[in-house]
Amino acid sequence: MALQDYKNVWILAEVQRGKLSPTALELLTAGRKLADDLGEKLCAVLLGHNVRPFAQELIDYGADIVYVCDDTQLENYIDDVYAKTLADMVKTYQPNKFLIPATNRGRALSAKTAVFVGTGLTADATDVTINKEDGQLYATRPTFGGNLMATITCARTRPEMCSLRPMAYEKAKKQAGRTGEVIAVPFQREKFTSAAQFIEFIKSNEGGLDLSEVDVIVAGGRGLGKAEGFALLQKLADRLGGAVAASRAPVDSGWIDYRYQIGLTGRTVRPKIYIACGISGQIQHTAGMSGSDVIIAINKDPNAPLMKTAHYAVEGDLYEVIPAMLEALH
Amino acid sequence: MHIVACVKQTPKSDNVKIDKETGCLIRSGTESAMNPFDEYALEEAVTLKEQAGGRVSVITMGPPQAEAVLRDSVARGADDVYQLGDRAFAGSDTWSTSYALSKGIEKINALHPVDLIICGKQTNDSDTGHIGPQISAWLNIPNAAFVKKIVRLNEKSIVVERLTEDGSEVVELPFPCVISVVKEISNPRVRSIKGRLNAKRATITVWTADDVAADKSKLGIQNCPTRVVKSFVPKREITSVVVEGSNGKEKGAKLVTLLKEQKFI
Amino acid sequence: MDYAINEMEQEVLNATREFAQKKIKPVRAEMDAKEQFSREMWEEYRKTGLFGLWLPEEYGGLGGGITCLAMAFEELSRACAGLALTPGTSALGAIPMFLAATKEQREKWCPDLASGKKLWAFALTEPEAGSDATALKTTAIKDGDFYVVNGTKHFISTGKEADFYTVAVNTNPSRGARGISLLVIEKGTPGFSFGKKEEKMGIRSNPTYELIFENVRVPKENLLGSEGRGLLYVQETLDYSRPGVAAQAVGIAQGALDTTIPYLRTRQQFGQPLITFQALGHKVAELAAKTEAGRALVYTLTHRMDNEFLPAVKNALANGTTVHDELKKIKGARWTKYSAEAKLFCSNVAMEVADECVTLCGGIAYMRDFPLEKYMRDAKITQIYEGTVHIQKNEILTALIKEYAAKGDEE
User: Fold this and answer.
1) C236 an active-site residue?
2) For the segment B243-254, what is each residue's pLDDT rounded down to a tens digit?
3) Superfamily of domain B2-223 in the CATH hierarchy
């Protein structure tokens, strides 16, 4: 089969715990542009149990076709089962491009599927375009922790697969009166088996992320004024995929546990982004975070030491600034 | 039990410097080390061995200097170490690399049956996270990724807890299987003195593509499905900026705009 | 300067330096503040194999000597003297056993000691017997196949956490000091309990306890060597362990300098970095010189000791004899004077360096959230335990007098 016989842009619409992931709408934005540039259709893929109802929503937001594979075996994510199902669908319908969200699930699923299909995959792309000369997908992604960007393509195999970083694209807008085709794909139980078994889901109660692991840290200091301030910081941390930390003052006041303390007598961290909220920035604290790539200071006092050395200084009340940030991030 | 850990030698995270003109990694004078996530993976493998009995084999694909990461593995408690070394492998993407590693693992399996294959979540240079799941695809065995904890295991299977964006999921995988782990899985020990001394004397087994019966048409920069057409340093001006706005609300929104512009978020 | 003379010693330095940075530094302030023994740190020590450095490979140890032990103690103390005591006091508690033990006793106790599975501690001091160890009152009276032990020990490092205690007891009170023997008593033996936990100035992360013995029946197999030879083994132990304390002191001094010099380089007053003020810079230079002198003395001494110690250990294992007897055969120097000199000099240097460093850094160094005052609080104990500076001077003087008396008043 010739490369030009592969048609259409596919996106995987992830459904987790009965909800459509926001990444589905982001992928529709990216996918729509690719499909339009190719002059081909945009198709969404739904795998799961009781996922059929999401099909119309995907059409409303831009999909031309929605492939639905709905089965109790797909209710919970098992890598083998999903990958085999997807690979089979790809072999049957032969899409040109396939975007999968780079969520935890998506990164593993796209990788496994790419091997089953026998095609190339770019991980965690932040930008995807069609190269006008040859219709290839150019996927740009960060490497070396974001220090170097690489643009990758897959010349000889189809579909060209790519996992797309969440929040790299804006969510698609709803368009009234859209119609599209819904195609039911049968789930083949004997073929799509796995010896692995899903046991249970455990909801996370607190952030629980390792401070040395995260890219973003939102830290609170004396300027928080009260223990409850950390709840607001946690919201921002969650939104940015990061963790909460503290300078010494809140720890001494009992607002947060010692293990979150950053500084000379606490931990040293080097995240990509360190957002210091209500922290003056004495050496005892800065010694623990000065290695961060981007330091943002939010403080009512424009003369606080950290406000002079931070990359971004925001003079203001964190209880106004952070909610505004959260809104802008939505 | 027999555990195989896959490791990679990568530039030390602190030292990554990109030549602004060529867009390439400045390799000379750059220290290499074991990919940080692999340290955690190997620590978990060694801990499992210490608890359950058995052996830990470590495999890497890399040029001759990658031998250092295998000696490091011995210092951390690995029993046997293997290097896939062959010009044919050079320039492989993850699809080809995982294929090569899977052939190496097959050969190790022929020596001593393998129960568990453990990989770090991703490398700090390519950052893809593909290798673990792709090895499982080549070998056609189950896998789980983003594993933060091993709940329990017996001779036949392993129960793991893997991270999701909203919590974690518990899954059971029969042996043989592949898990890719995150840093929560373990707390890497400081290498023992005996380990450091043994590392210097360890025997490294080197295998070529032919030794592991790898199909060369799947390997290397010429044959792997993806290729890099361009690389560039992202333009980021990091200077001191006072965020403008007439009140906290405006400044908050402006900050987000600035950060998005610079692609920090 | 690094004083490693072989690969093993160099790797000991490498491993303990890495351990100090990665494992000890992040938690030292918390452990000091909470005055808590860390089981997690014990486990980390075990995983890195830092308990068996000085024990033979036959028992699972590294096969190193006193130098390896001292180097580890220095580098770990450089980060935290208190946390360094977990392997440090296990060595101190076990050295008397290792010197005096028969082949059977070694085989019974050394493997778990070397792996760190079991911790040891040394119990000599009593309320009425500090510097004057001969005044100890704990008795151990023979009753069939057992000794019945009664008495109290206090100020015992790693008390309650340790599993085995080398206890100095009197098996023949009518003979006074000549009745003192060493018994190994295991935690959990009926009648053996723990009393007061001390709150200390420094080394707070190491638990210091009172030990209470009430009719504790200890099997006669737990006697080390023969009855009445206890003080001999204690003296021999101190000869080998005092350089360890001296090494700890050097580590404390170095740690204080490591914290001070970077601070003096960045902190500016009167328009210039503090270190550019000659009064301050010169003081730093002095302190560094003294620290290096102490270090050189410690390792020169331990390397000499190893020239006897390592062959003696080898012979003891080969011949099935005690290490103590093999050391006697080698008939080398008596170490007492040199060990005392090392401990005297280095502990005074540690206290001086830590004290001066706090002054150099000023107000911020007086505050608990700057990691310097802890070095001063920790340094103090090195001038006290395993013999105070006054006792060290006594030892040195006694040795000098003996030396010169033997030479006669010649020249």
Assistant:
1) no
2) 989 898 999 999
3) HUPs (3.40.50.620)
